[in-house]
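Supplementary notes for students who missed Thursday's class. We covered one full example, reproduced here. Read the sequence, then the structure, then the short commentary at the end.
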Amino acid sequence: MQANFSNVISFENVSIYQEDNSLILADIDFQMEAGAFIYLLGKTGSGKSTFIRTLIADLPIASGNAVVAGFKLPVHKNEIPLLRRKIGVVFQDFQLLSDRSVFDNLAFVLKATGWKDNSLIRNRISEVLMQVGIEFTSGKLPHQISGGEQQRVSIARAILNDPALIIADEPTGNLDPETGQGIMELFKRINQNGTAILLATHNPSWPEKYPAPALICRDGRLKLMQAPA
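Structure (token representation):
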């Protein structure tokens, strides 16, 4: 059910179980304001991916109260596409359709989320490619562009529908440090335009170069730590 909440994420006393009914994260109390930038940190297996799956309604909450992008969890299966239009997701491995051009990758998402006017689709794709700095890639296949450019395409895909929240899961994990820094600077610019960003990373240099609060996954709990002054 869609609700009217100011936070893009609000969890109160939430517990999350895996499909095998094993408890992964317990007693989560966490609010993320609209327009915030927060890191999601923790060792492999600490629950970061499970938390992300919960945010996009891929895994139901077991108990507590949760609201993401204005939708109360768990959502009815018919509402999952509506929720996901409010959330842009960026993956470590890009997840682009290899047999389609950059333009067609983006057009596929727009059409799948209800866009019908071809001229509006073309204009929107042009806008987002310019926003991420790779308008020259429109007619190319993913294998014809660099890894950094592919990640910029995936970021363009994430912002197509002006989401309230972007979830980035290790977005620089497959990139060299210089290219990764360019991706981080792009995320900061998008955030400055008002989009909330939750960014999961194992790279300790990003919180040092781009300070922001961090949500720490440890020992089955989530704890929010403020950025150092």
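Commentary. The chain is about 30% helix and 25% strand. Residues 35-56+85-225 form a domain with the Rossmann fold fold (CATH 3.40.50.300). If anything here is unclear, bring it to office hours.
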